[in-house]
Amino acid sequence: MSIESSSAAGTVPADRGRRTDNPLPAQGPAVSPQASPTPPFADPAALGLGAFAMTTFVLSAINAGLIVKADEPVVLGLALFYGGLAQFGAGIWEFANRNVFGATAFCSYGAFWLSFWFLSQFNAASLPAADAGKAVGLYLLAWAIFTAYMTIASWRVSLGVFAVFAFLTLTFIALFIGAFAGASGMTMLGGWLGLVTALIAWYCSLAVVANSTFKRTVLPVGRR
């Protein structure tokens, strides 16, 4: 499967003769000489990465203990509208751009934030107090497994995206252990790892915007 970029943000007009770094290059069959190399949509990676980064940053600040746990509802609006719906929409656009990796990642993590919102709003209070930590731990473990195998594929995307997925895998593992074992120290560690994850994702989002806007590589992402 080819990973060469054919997205608008990853390709500079022919008269410039240069290509910009795009952390989520589009995937698909080679384009014939008669067909246009431009995908039908602008690169949605900036939106997807930005939505993921901001929602992760806010929740991770709470998990790290920078904000008291009682303030956690502040993240729910972000989880529903930005991390959830906006990121899921970015994934749908990636399907249209024939980017299998980007579509799978953005739709999946958009759905993660939607499920987090739903769990917090409708299910968390009904979990048996004695087993709530194990239930949440199982939920986080499942996402850790998914993120781990996406990390393997991300190595062929860019170093920036690989770093996002590597740190996100560690984040989910730490949060899983913290929830399942009731270890607040591991939950705080997961919060700090999540903050690092969010900052890297924000950088990759900025790289897509800057490189597309300036029509050259302003911020490198280490394309593979």
From TrEMBL:
- Please give the InterPro entries that the UniProt record associates with this protein: AceTr, Gpr1/Fun34/SatP-like
Region described as Disordered: 1-38
For whether the record's keyword set contains Transmembrane helix, the answer is yes
Q: Which domain of life is it from?
A: Bacteria
Topological relation to the membrane, as annotated: Multi-pass membrane protein
What family classification does the UniProt entry report for this protein?
Answer: Belongs to the acetate uptake transporter (AceTr) (TC 2.A.96) family.
What protein is this chain from?
Acetate uptake transporter
